[in-house]
From TrEMBL:
GO terms for cellular component: plasma membrane. It comes from Tepidimonas thermarum. The keyword Nucleotide-binding applies. Pfam families: BCA_ABC_TP_C. The keyword ATP-binding applies. Keywords: ATP-binding, Nucleotide-binding, Transport. This is Sulfate/thiosulfate import ATP-binding protein CysA. InterPro entries: ABC_AA/LPS_Transport, BCA_ABC_TP_C, P-loop_NTPase. One of its GO terms (molecular function) is ATP binding. Residues 81-106 form the Branched-chain amino acid ATP-binding cassette transporter C-terminal domain. Gene3D superfamilies: P-loop containing nucleotide triphosphate hydrolases. PANTHER family: ABC TRANSPORTER ATP-BINDING PROTEIN, CONSERVED COMPONENT OF ABC TRANSPORTER FOR NATURAL AMINO ACIDS-RELATED.
C-alpha cells in the first residue's frame, strides 16, 4: 500500500476529523513540513470548512504569514503569557509582539 503525499495526508486527516461534525476544531501546526503550494491549498481548505460548516477553528501555527492571512482573531503567547490579542492588524502592530518575536533595534 502506497503512502499519500504529505499535504494530501494532512487534508485526509482533517476530513476524518470533520466527519465527527465538530463545533470547534483544534489544529496544531497543520502547515508543518508543507511547501508553499501545499500551505496555500490547506489555507483554502481551512477557510472553506469555516465558511461552509461554521466550524470554529483554533489554529496553533508558527507560519505568521498563514496566521495573519486566514485568521479573524489572533492571540499571541510568549512563554505561556498572553502578550497580544486582536485582529491580525492589531497584533501585527502590537509593541509587545514586535519586541518578543522580531526584536527591537539597538
Amino acid at each position: 500500500m502506497g503512502q499519500l503525499p504529505y499535504g494530501l495526508q494532512k487534508r485526509v486527516d482533517l476530513g476524518r476529523a470533520l466527519a465527527m461534525e465538530p463545533q470547534v476544531l483544534l489544529l496544531d501546526e497543520p502547515m508543518a513540513g508543507m511547501n508553499v503550494e501545499e500551505k496555500q491549498d490547506m489555507c483554502r481548505f481551512i477557510l472553506d470548512v469555516n465558511d461552509e460548516f461554521g466550524t470554529t477553528i483554533v489554529l496553533i501555527e508558527h507560519d505568521m504569514g498563514v496566521v495573519m492571512d486566514i485568521s479573524d482573531r489572533v492571540v499571541v503567547l510568549d512563554y505561556g503569557k498572553k502578550i497580544g490579542d486582536g485582529t491580525p492588524d492589531e497584533v501585527r502592530n502590537n509593541e509587545d509582539v514586535i519586541r518578543a518575536y522580531l526584536g527591537t533595534s539597538h
